[in-house]
Amino acid sequence: MNNNKRFSYTATFIIIKLFGLSRDPQFTPLVDKKASEYYEKVISQLPSPLFFFKTLLKNPWLRHFSIFMEDLVLPGDLMHLLMRKVYIKDAIFQALNDGYEQVVVLGSGLDFSAIRTSQLQYNSFELDSPNTIRLKYDLLEKLNYHNPFLHFVSSQIKEKGIVTTLKSHSDFRTDVPTLFIAEGFLDYQELDTIHRILDDMNALTDHKSRFLFTLFDFEEMEPVDAQIIRDSVEFVGEYLKYNIGRDHIEELLHTHDFSLRWVVDPETMNKEKLKPLDIENPLFKGFYIMMAESSP
Ligand SMILES: C[S@@+](CC[C@H](N)C(=O)[O-])C[C@H]1O[C@@H](n2cnc3c(N)ncnc32)[C@H](O)[C@@H]1O
Q: Would you say the pTM of this structure is higher than 0.85?
């Protein structure tokens, strides 16, 4: 969990990296235009010295060098971020099409998903630790992203779970199909918190729920990459806790009446999104995007 005294640096660096990719003609086709505008606005508002990244990444040479270095030091990180935004955006639209009426983003950080769905007039909830939610609330207020469908819920999910905080929110509805999103979030939780979250999602609505999430399987990754991920997250005061693993996720979901509906693996991401654009940058092994559903 992130250091309680300040906002999440992992969440902030995700936006900085996506901003860099969104400025690069090779990757621009994979970055949604509205999200890319948002990244640029957010990065301009970041506290010093983080806003210097805007100047740095706008310069083509410095940007190329940064991408080259990042691919060298942690091969696969940049493309895994890009892929999760691409697939999760599509899966959100699919869920709305399938009749999901409410969106809850767990560990939302500075992500754009809840903003997007709120702009489409779906009740959307951003849940994160108090400092990160405060930063996002203030940022979005300054940038004019507030709207009546976007709700901010500040909670240490480990301690409080999500039932009490959401049920006591006047805009949360227990009678509609709800989409829960946990992008880059489960890896940061202990196993008992993951069990609790799965229970809580069932307890929150009388309807079916859909759960969209990402996970790393460290067993499948190059050991050095797994170690660098752990170390770099720890370096900014956050910790990866429990590694579920691809083989155990179905059983874990089943225990809580969720069934796994689809999985996107790195081979599929490469084949469907990167290769068609001749992108050869590395993508982590052992990185998955998954969707599960509970029965009503
Ligand atoms: C790696 S960031 C991902 C942010 C965002 N989902 C994205 O993909 O851009 C993880 C986020 O989860 C939040 N987080 C992790 N554990 C949490 C917990 N137990 N309760 C609330 N927020 C948590 C962190 O504060 C951080 O914003």
A: yes
